[in-house]
């Protein structure tokens, strides 16, 4: 599915989120509190939007971007080369559930709009905790089911009706309807934070974005106090 939608993935993200997705990515990178010269792992890197944002916000950072979709990585490679950042952004095929890195390799980890697509989310979270250095941060940005508030029904209509329709029309792939289904199936924020804790991540903060249409989960290796 992701190979099919890769050529128009960026356009769809901008249209469906009304451009807010880039603001969310900037906030995700800022939450890492990176220092010069550090190394970040970007899981489910897709077309490298978040990986490129990391380098733009902290130019001396090195990023390793991992994704299981060859189609996404092909687009990502084009974008990284066009930005002249091939020496700083290392793109590789890979699976968040089975990271081929030694313990405590990275100063920070990001994952934008990818954890809900991972079959074994607890295992992926354990892998993140394992490869993050002590004191490093894990920032997970994910879409969620909008709840509450006056605009809650509008947000839910956007996610469940408008998003699948726009995605299917513009991408030419009916599989894009999977997006709304995967959001509905994703754990509630309170439940997801419990998964983080069970995986060995201390939950530092959970930020609700756009009436609950997305959440930013921030954690660090170590037991929850």
Describe the protein in words.
The protein has 225 residues and is an alpha/beta fold. The protein has one domain: 3-Layer(aba) Sandwich (Rossmann fold). Helices cover 43% and strands 23% of the residues. The chain contains 9 helices and 7 strands, in the order αααβαβαββαβαααββ. The mean pLDDT is 87.
Strands, helices and their partners?
Elements: H1 2-5, H2 9-17, H3 20-31, E1 39-43, H4 49-57, E2 62-67, H5 70-82, E3 89-93, E4 106-112, H6 121-131, E5 132-143, H7 152-171, H8 178-185, H9 189-198, E6 201-209, E7 214-221
Parallel strand pairs: 1-2, 1-4, 2-3, 4-5
Antiparallel strand pairs: 5-7, 6-7
The helix-strand sequence is: HHHEHEHEEHEHHHEE
Morphology: globular
Top CATH class: Alpha Beta
Low-confidence segments: none
Oligomer: single chain
Cα Rg: 17 Å
Strand content: 15-25%
Fraction of helical residues: 40-55%
Strand order of the largest sheet: 3-2-1-4-5-7-6
SS-derived structural category: alpha/beta
What is the level-2 CATH architecture name?
3-Layer(aba) Sandwich
Total helical segments: 9
Mean model confidence by pLDDT? 87
Task: State the total count of DSSP E strands.
Answer: 7
Number of domains: 1
Mind describing the biggest β-sheet?
7 strands, mixed
